[in-house]
Amino acid sequence: MPGTSFFHQARNNAWSNHRLYGVCQKLTDGELASKRTPFSASILETLNHILTNDWYYLDALVDGRRGRACLDTEMPFGAIDKLAAAQRDADMRLMAYCEQLNDRCHPAGRTGPRRRHQDA
After folding, report:
1. How much is the pTM?
2. Would you give the DSSP letter of residue 65?
3. Whole-angstrom distance, CA of residue 94 vs CA of residue 90
């Protein structure tokens, strides 16, 4: 049973991404590709940027094999449906990582804070 605040934060992040992509998937290709600001040229580019940064930090947490190579491709997905699927995968991986943190930190299902045993 996930009980760490890390897991709950990861789950909230996944829920937020789910809602964001639900709205973005209703946009036309033209609306997704439309230039917006100098920093984030389009919604699609911004969502790709968020995903590649998620990959980078997830890699650092999980195994660190890819490192900055996670950021090599600025726009790995040109289609919103494939991008949404990749973001869901990253969100699920983050939740799984946080869930195992809970298992490691609180064996036998304990979810409360650990107390140091003191001899009287």
Report:
1. 0.79
2. S
3. 6
